[in-house]
Amino acid sequence: MANAGFRIYTKINRPDRALVEQFRDLPVANIADEMNRFSCLDARIKPLNRTPLLGTAFTVKARAGDNLMLHKAIDMAQPGDVIVVDGQGDLVNSLTGEIMMRQVLKKGIAGVIIDGAVRDADALHELGLAVYAAGVTPKGPYKNGPGEINVPVCCGGMVVNPGDILVGDGDGVVVISPQDAPVIAEKAKAKQNKEQETFKRIEAGTVDRSAYSDEVFKKLGCEFIDDYWR
Prior knowledge:
The chain is an alpha/beta fold. The chain has a single domain (6-187), classed as Glucose Oxidase, domain 1. The chain is 29% helix and 24% strand. It contains 7 helices and 11 strands. The chain has helices spanning 17-21, 28-33, 68-76, 98-107, 121-126, 181-204, 214-219, and strands at 6-8, 46-47, 53-62, 81-86, 111-118, 130-136, 147-149, 153-155, 158-160, 165-169, 172-176. Strands 1, 2, 3, 4, 5, 6, 7, 10 and 11 form a 9-stranded mixed beta sheet that branches. The protein has a two-stranded antiparallel sheet with strand order 8-9. It is elongated.
């Protein structure tokens, strides 16, 4: 008999690691631009440190304020996975802290994203593990369940499927479907190379700013007034 809401799927269709590595060191903003500026977790989900994030989604659907299924996910996740927790955005109780995150780091798990709260923020800042969360509170969690593992979840306003590729930096996190990943990686690399050339032109003082000239603004209907505001 199906037990919807309290289930664990033990298998994930993980993309080839070489495909995941195509996104290493690519800025999240560049990747998102090549996805028509969609597929990013919203700004509530913030990094707790400067450790970059790259890996495949291992998803958890948790009851608000309850981390029973997160504990199980830590035991099940493999090196290179990113544990993504749909904590319903609840900030009343933290779902994890330093002890659990040290276990994650020891296992070689690539990072954790919590749509909910965490605690031990100072320790997590220094831990060297990519951790993203919607908030911080000292209040601890419950461990009663239910919940689900390796099902589609909602995190930061985005649907995240098990096996999706996740890239995170100081700007936030972008979610990439494996079937789209080869083309997106190629386009994001090309954009990064183009930006590097732009940086060089900035230093040389040769950047073309004609798109922002007075004439362009006037054609758009902007009024220029040769006087002070009164």
